[in-house]
């Protein structure tokens, strides 16, 4: 019993010594060098790895979704812009449905006229003058509606002069068909000619740099055009997206502050033939004036660069958004 008690005491002592002497592996989050001394040591791993929502995505699209919109009828008051803003699959579906519905609607009316006049009962009667020759059912009326609205005119089905209601319907369908063609074809043309894909060949530098230039502290990045057709009358501007609290205590989320990239000197108007370096001087009027080097990596801010100009090939104005958030090195 004494031997067993002594052995238990020895084992308990060894385990306590092991618990005391064994080092605890504490993994510190991998942070920028400028921020390691300033951040508290109890910072959690979840905070460093949290996913921050961007105001503008990397592809230049705004990451803003409109919710709880009650006055949805306002979208219908500007139906043309609503159709242009739709995705391609919905746009093509509406394009096909509009033409199909109009053809079916007028085909039904042509069939009703023939049915009311009794043309269906005298199909093989050579002495009977129908409203539309060779119209013997709904399918033939639907085909005649397509021929009338698209002005194909095969010559097999022809309207006669003994049908005044048919003549009036022919005029109405011709006018409405022209309106539908102008509206839908115009909508498709505007959607096809939008210069959204032009942004794929306008590239911004991977990182923005803060360094000295001509004795002044400047924020710099580069922009370039990959195409031979240039952007005419190009101009550039930049915005700082950052939450703000006023002196009265009001909290303003996603406050936009202008970043001067040469507005007063004319440097914001670009001749974008070769890659250019855009510079912003960090002076007392700059929104970065009160942000130190150690504080910059901890700031939750976003820099959005807007490049506007006219596409030389199409003559249309385009606007390209660049994204420089958390890609700044000192």
Automatic annotation (TrEMBL):
Family, per entry: Belongs to the inward rectifier-type potassium channel (TC 1.A.2.1) family. KCNJ6 subfamily.
Protein name in UniProt: G protein-activated inward rectifier potassium channel 2
Domain Potassium channel inwardly rectifying transmembrane, chain residue ranges per copy: 56-195
TM helices/strands, residue ranges: 92-116, 166-190
Record GO terms (molecular function): G-protein activated inward rectifier potassium channel activity
Gene coding for it: KCNJ6
Record keywords, A-Z: Ion channel, Ion transport, Membrane, Phosphoprotein, Potassium, Potassium transport, Transmembrane, Transmembrane helix, Transport, Voltage-gated channel
One annotated GO biological process: potassium ion import across plasma membrane
Organism for this UniProt entry: Rhinopithecus bieti (Black snub-nosed monkey)
InterPro entries per UniProt: Ig_E-set, IRK_C, K_chnl_inward-rec_Kir, K_chnl_inward-rec_Kir3.2, K_chnl_inward-rec_Kir_cyto, Kir_TM
